[in-house]
Specification:
alpha/beta, TIM Barrel, 6-stranded mixed beta sheet, 20 helices, binds beta-D-glucopyranose
């Protein structure tokens, strides 16, 4: 081992400098390319020293890595995969609830553990890097990718995403079970106009700094070492072409030391879809100079850039910087010490311990939206139960987006999917059957299809409901109504689902609706007519066990919505942190209030908030405030309450949201028990970006609002004054 770069006792920087000095231009540019296996590895590894492959089959990681290690310098590949809510492309892996679902737990520790487990499963299949977490702010539910988000609040997103980065990356990247996280899509990708995937986002730099950048700043401060740029453009500049964003802000101002990855074929889109580059070569040059370091799925980049450097058109220093960033991460990850090269078959994938965490995650993700007359939890002696609806026994809808690898047809239909998780997934029907003493008391009828209105069997469902003492109808959306390029112009229930619900309602059998859906749907009819509603989102492998546990009261639901439900699509946007100033404050034909607001969620018990107090009411900008509140369990069940702290900057030089989440905590209480919850609020977190683009805390009055949801009626208020 004579070469310096192979010496693990040296620092990653020393090793990087040495390795870079030995590399040809071709080898450097090769490291900056990432492709899938439709590109021949014999050419791309042996001749071009490609830096990374993505989304390959796990056995291929081993073959390809060995090939890479045999090249002149033996630089290992870094394998990336979309392990977004578990290592879901891998059959039999643990599928956790979607990010949106898990965000409703408001539990960073849980998310960290989920990411830790995902990292274990990922590394044990030879991959080193996940393209997650997703930090897009989900403010327009028409957008296809809402299920991937942590909802609509920047503060909560920053908290949960940082927890996941800690979980994926562990204490040190070099730990045997740590993988590299790749927060995405930088930045404001969820804000594209009309909910249209990858379209233009109309966001000023001030709004970027106020709302969209803070979650990314949080993960950079946590220590993430790669970031994926978004497809879309902001104010005319595609993110992959935005040197202010990638270089001036991310790398210089924030001091980000990792590397930037483009999204899929994003260089090509600059030329072919966004038309900011007349040729692909122009696009490649723009992307490189803007600060992208690794290019996903643009094979042409390789020849184009080598030629430009050799002709002196681009300075070699540009690729030296990009390549060094990539190599540095490879060294720190331990790839040169053979990380991810598997020696034996692993018992880690989908193991019992991981399943238990998936159950815990699913339980904490569920949100009880309605429970009239305490219909839930169900009594043990309830007797016959009709379990109805297209999502009652539907593992594909239940697992949601990014669970089934690459789907070849476009747009994908549910029928295109090969369900490699079916045997490991407990559907809602399975879970209920397992939970009741006598499975023959369950009368199951699908009733209708999510998509096809012709495919229905509603009469049989009505029959079952009439024979039963309660009807649990599981409706929602499907895999093919969520994801990239799958934006919706309507959020109403599809197929004959509404007809099914209406028919069951007419039987007068008590109606419980369980929702399996990737995003908020417009369900005012359900809100009015169902006796109980349980929002389950895409609850993962263990979703059926979790839903059954909540329905029967083995677990008291504690999830709170992280995204508001509109009553009607025309009401959008309905996110809670709106700007003030709307004349009239409502539509003439509809209230402004969402159907269910951010932060809302019921429990089988009730909580009383009292005695809101602040450690002091007069503060300087550098000080920290402690906000305290007493919370009492006034019902009959033990329960957990998620306590939320919002702030309203009363008067400021620029408009600021009517309220903004600045803290949260959860408290577990036995019936009759009362506890004091303390929330810490650094005054620096009350800053705004003024019209000059400067971040500052402006003196004056701030309202502190604490309670169990973002709704005014659920919040107690106190004022503080900052000097
Ligand atoms: C998506 C990314 C994803 C990548 C690789 C893109 O189309 O926007 O989120 O990581 O594909 O699969």
């Amino acid at each position: 081992m004579s070469e310096v770069y192979r010496d693990p006792s040296l620092s990653a920087s020393e090793r990087t400098i040495d390795l870079l000095s030995r590399m040809t231009i071709e080898e450097k540019v090769g490291q900056m390319c990432q492709l899938d296996l439709s590109h021949d590895p014999k050419i791309w590894i042996k001749e071009r020293n490609i830096g990374s492959y993505l989304n390959v089959k796990w056995k291929d990681t081993q073959v390809l890595q060995k090939m890479a290690l045999e090249t002149r310098l033996g630089i290992p590949l870094i394998f990336g995969v979309d392990a977004v809510h578990g290592h879901c492309f891998h059959d039999g892996a643990t599928v956790f609830p979607s990010q949106l679902a898990m965000s409703c737990s408001w539990n960073p520790e849980l998310l960290e553990e989920v990411a830790r487990i995902t990292a274990r499963e990922v590394i044990h299949t030879g991959f080193h890097w996940t393209f997650a977490p997703i930090l897009c702010i989900g403010r327009d539910p028409r957008w296809g990718r809402i299920s991937e988000t942590f909802g609509e609040d920047p503060f909560l997103i920053g908290n949960l995403a940082s927890a996941m980065v800690r979980g994926y990356q562990g204490k040190s990247l070099s730990d045997p079970e740590s993988i590299l996280a790749c927060p995405k899509h930088f930045v404001a990708y969820g804000e594209t106009i009309g909910g249209r995937d990858s379209a233009e986002a109309e966001v000023s730099r001030r709004k970027l700094r106020s709302i969209f950048l803070p979650p990314f700043k949080a993960v950079v401060d946590t220590g993430c070492d790669s970031i994926m740029a978004g497809y879309h453009s902001i104010d005319g500049t595609p993110c992959s072409a935005n040197s202010w964003l990638l270089k001036d802000l991310l790398k210089k101002e924030w001091g980000f030391k990792g590397f930037v990855l483009t999204d899929w074929a994003n260089i090509n889109w600059l030329h072919e879809m966004q038309y900011i580059a007349p040729t692909l070569a122009d696009a490649a040059e723009i992307a490189l100079l803007a600060g992208n370091d690794m290019m996903m799925s643009t094979p042409e980049f390789y020849n184009i850039i080598i030629k430009m450097i050799k002709e002196g058109h681009i300075d070699e220093k540009v690729i030296d910087d990009a390549c060094s960033r990539i190599l540095n991460v490879k060294f720190r990850l331990g790839l040169f010490e053979q990380k991810g090269l598997l020696t034996s078959d692993s018992k880690v994938i989908g193991c019992l311990k991981h399943k238990k965490k998936a159950l815990e995650a699913a339980l904490q993700s569920l949100v009880l939206l309605k429970n009239d007359n305490d219909l839930l939890p169900l009594k043990e002696n309830i007797g016959k139960i009709a379990v109805l609806g297209p999502n009652a026994d539907n593992s594909i809808a239940q697992l949601g987006d990014w669970s089934f690898g690459k789907v070849l047809n476009w747009p994908p239909q549910d029928s295109d999917i090969v369900d490699g998780h079916k045997d490991n997934t407990v559907t809602i029907l399975d879970g209920i059957k397992k939970r009741v003493k006598d499975p023959s008391s369950i009368l199951y009828v699908k009733g209708c299809d999510v998509l096809n209105p012709e495919d229905q069997d509603i009469q049989k469902a009505v029959q079952a409901a009439m024979e039963a003492n309660v009807a649990i109808v599981v409706v929602g959306d499907s895999y093919s109504l969520n994801g990239e390029r799958k934006d919706r112009a309507s959020l109403d229930l599809t197929g004959a689902q509404h007809k099914l619900l209406d028919s069951i309602k007419r039987t007068e059998t008590p109606l419980i609706v369980v929702l399996i859906n990737g995003k908020p749907l417009t369900i005012p009819w359900i809100a009015e007519n169902a006796d109980a509603i349980l929002e389950a989102w895409n609850p993962g492998n263990e979703g059926g066990n979790a839903v059954a546990a909540v329905l029967f009261g083995d677990f008291n639901p504690s999830g709170k919505l992280t995204i508001s439900f509109p009553r009607h699509i025309g009401q959008l946007p309905v996110y809670y942190n709106q700007m003030p100033g709307w004349h009239g404050g409502k539509y003439v034909d509809m209230d402004a209030e969402p159907l269910f607001p951010f932060g809302y969620g019921l429990s089988y018990t009730s909580f009383q908030y009292s005695n809101l107090r602040c450690s002091t009411t007069e503060l300087q900008k550098h000080e920290v405030l402690t906000v305290s509140i007493d919370i009492k369990n006034t019902g009959n069940h033990e329960g957990t309450e998620i306590v939320q702290l919002y702030v309203n900057d009363k008067y400021s030089s620029v408009t600021t949201p009517i309220k903004e989440l600045k803290g949260f905590s959860s408290v577990n209480l036995h019936p009759g028990e009362e506890k004091c919850v303390n929330l810490v609020l650094p005054i620096s977190s009350l800053s705004l970006i003024n019209s000059e683009g400067v971040e500052c805390v402006e003196p004056g009055e701030f309202e502190i609002l604490v309670g169990g949801s973002s709704r005014d009626n659920d919040l107690l208020k106190k004022s503080i004054f900052v000097h």
